[in-house]
Amino acid sequence: MAKLNPMAAALLIAAMPLIASCAPAGSGEPGAAALTPKQAERLDRQLAGKIPGEPIRCLPNYRSSDTIRVSDNILLYRSGNSLVYRNDLKGSCPGLARDSDIMVVQQFGSSTCEGDFFHLVDRSSGIRGPTCVFGGFVPYRKPAGDKG
Predict the structure, then answer these.
(1) Alpha-carbon distances of 128 from 87, 102, 105, 123, 132, rounded to whole Å
(2) Region 45-53: what's the mean pLDDT?
(3) Which of 23, 53, 73, 90 fits 133 for a cystine, CB–CB 3.0-4.6 Å?
């Protein structure tokens, strides 16, 4: 068996978390590779029985009644029982999944659009956190005639 020099061994050990994060966990949906089992279950539960449609660039404010933080990369916007919009952020938004910070959206007009920014603000200290960028909004609808 070949022996690794100490420097190569240290690099390999340091890279293991990065390599492991490439393995899918939970849902087979795009962007689901970094989800914890609890996050994957939450995403699967919210999208169960719904079929994805064509992404839209902007989501009018009146179309969303509830924001669900799935992970640091995925937001869901609920619009009634049969329609959910999924937003895969353009990059990670560290701390978003904690659901304790306030989301402050920099919005232009009456819609939130792909490429718009938001940042997180610590609820207790008021300190501004990371700036994050919305991706496209993918509608997930229950098929016609599905009453469940």
Answers:
(1) 22, 9, 12, 10, 12
(2) 96
(3) 90
